[in-house]
Every structure is written in C-alpha cells, then in structure tokens.
Design a protein that fits this description.
single chain, 314 residues, mainly beta, Beta-galactosidase, Chain A, domain 5, nine-stranded antiparallel sheet, eight-stranded antiparallel sheet, 19 strands, 14% helix, 41% strand, disordered N terminus
Length: 314
C-alpha cells in the first residue's frame, strides 16, 4: 500500500494555507449570505405553486392547462387541516366549479365563465414574478379570459399569503382586468367575482357552523343578498378546533360594500354586479382587491382589526 508523504515542509505549508483560505472563504460566504425566507412560493410539477411557512404548506395555487380556471386549494388553517373543499358536498356534478377559492363571473359580454359546462375559460398564460420574504410570499400571474378562441380580457393577478400570529394568515388577491379589444360588460348577476367553498364540517347545515357578517347578521336568512364589508364562515374542523375564513371586500372595489351570496351549505361569494352591470374599457382596466382571513376563533374585534389593516392597503 502506498503511503502518503508530504513533499517537503514548504509545500505542506502552502497546502495548509490554501486549505485554510478555502474554508475561510466559505465561512465568510455562509456567514454573510442572505437569510432564508420564512414564507416562500415554491414552484411544483404539474402547474402548481406551493405557499409554505417554515417548509409547511399553507396553500397551493393550481393553474394547469386543462383547468377551467386557476384556484387555490388546500387552504390550511391553524389546526393543519384545509378549511375549504372542492365541489358541493351534496351536488358535486352541477357544482364542480366550486373550486375552493376561485375567481370567475357568470356574465362577461353575455358569456358565462362560472359553470364548468359554459363556453368561458380563464387560461393561465405565464408567471411574471415570485416573491418570498420573512412574513409574506406572492406570485404575479397573467391570465386570459377566453371563449370560442377569442380573448375577452387580459388579467393580471397577484396572489399573496401574509402571516399573522397564532398560525393565522391572510390570503389577498389583487386583480387587474383589461379588455383585449373594445369594451367588456360584466352583466347583472349574483355569481362572481370571488367565491369560497368551505369544508363540509364548517357548513351550517352539515357541521353546525355559523355565518356572521360585518353588520352583525347571522346565517343565511339574514345574510343572503345583504351588503357587507365582510362575511365570516366558521365551524368545527376537528373534534376540538373551530376555525374559519372571513371573506373581505376592499373599499376601493366599485361595488363596495359588496352584496354577498351566502348559503348555509358552506358557500359564500362577494358579488361584483348584483345591482347593475359594469362596463370596462381598454383604457381604464378594472382593479379589484379581495382578502380571505384564515383564522382560529377570533373575536369580532379581531376580524375588524384585520379588515381595517386590509382596507388601508393600496
């Protein structure tokens, strides 16, 4: 066996010095590197982006080419379970468009983007930006609202997750909708623009949950078709945990306070054009902001505090 022998004291000193400089260089680089972001948007296979807090997923954005629209699922609450579901618990076929948290509308120039059997489709075009940080992560995407090979709207969407204490967090969706050619009219309808399908056990009917709006009204008979700044849907998600989501309409939205479409079966939505149609021109794109407060058991004052902070954003 050949034994290693140092080729002289001078050469050994050079080798030792070189090793020391090499290790010292990497120690310097590591100690002066940027901190790892606590909240990250991680690209995944199959056209998905995972929003993670300290490596644990809290939400996932889906934008595959075979989908009728992008959506967010799951939406993880403080207990570690999703507070939303895919589809209606008792009518999954005709309500297959209930995609957890999603954006769409029933009447865009007379074309429905709401139902899965309709002509309209919101097609992902590209991701423009990823943002990671100590308390928030986001993706900026571009979508096309299309029907019969015609693009009606170009949409830019900022989907952002912002961390709050006690494993609560805020999902915000900022939209800019610009007609591709000529004016586009959002027709009068209660369906659209923002929808949330709650987990089955949170629903009033199936799980004994509760609906509460910003005006103090409780459950479907008092909340349905009423204007509000926010609507909260909370209920049991484990044997011991009660959690929920507060859907918030930003004061800058043209229909604010929005009319809310809410049902005891676990569905809630903020209606953009419940009262009247809305026409958007190419030179003046429509800008909208919505938020979902993912929480444990906050007081009404806590919900108002989160809403007021959201209302201050521009």
């Amino acid at each position: 066996m050949t034994r290693f022998q140092c080729p002289g004291k001078f050469q050994c000193l050079k080798l030792m010095l070189g090793t020391w400089l090499f290790l010292g260089h990497w120690t310097f680089v590591i100690s002066h590197s940027a901190p790892v972001p606590t909240v990250q948007a991680i690209p995944l296979p199959n056209h998905e982006v995972s929003f993670q807090r300290d490596g644990d997923e809290i939400a996932r954005y889906h934008f595959g080419p075979d989908l009728r629209r992008p959506f967010v699922f799951p939406v993880i609450g403080p207990s570690g379970r999703s507070l939303t579901r895919m589809g209606h618990p008792h009518d999954p076929e005709s309500h297959s468009h209930h995609n957890s948290i999603w954006i769409s509308h029933h009447d865009v120039n007379g074309i429905s983007f709401w139902d899965d059997r309709a002509k309209g489709k919101i097609v992902h075009c590209r991701i423009l930006r990823f943002d990671d940080g100590p308390d928030a992560a986001a993706i900026l995407t571009e979508n096309a609202w299309t029907a019969s090979n015609t693009v009606l709207l170009i949409e830019r969407r900022l989907t952002r997750t912002q961390m709050l204490p006690n494993k609560e967090w805020l999902l915000t969706i900022d939209l800019e909708l610009q007609p591709a050619s000529g004016d586009v009219t959002f027709g009068k309808t209660p369906f659209g623009l923002m929808g949330v399908r709650m987990a089955k056990t949170i629903g009033v009917t199936d799980g004994g949950g509760r609906i509460l709006n910003s005006e103090g009204a409780i459950n479907e008979p008092a909340v349905l078709w009423k204007k509000a700044r926010w609507v909260d849907y909370s209920g049991p998600i484990t044997l011991k945990a009660t959690e929920g989501i507060t859907l918030m309409d930003h004061p800058s939205n043209p229909s604010h306070p929005a009319t809310f479409h809410v049902r005891n079966d676990g569905w809630m939505g903020a209606s953009l054009t419940f009262d009247a149609p809305l026409t958007v021109s190419t030179n003046h794109p429509l800008k909208l902001k919505y938020a979902c407060y993912i929480h444990g058991r906050p007081s009404t004052n806590d919900i108002w505090r989160v809403f007021n902070d959201f209302a201050k954003t521009r």
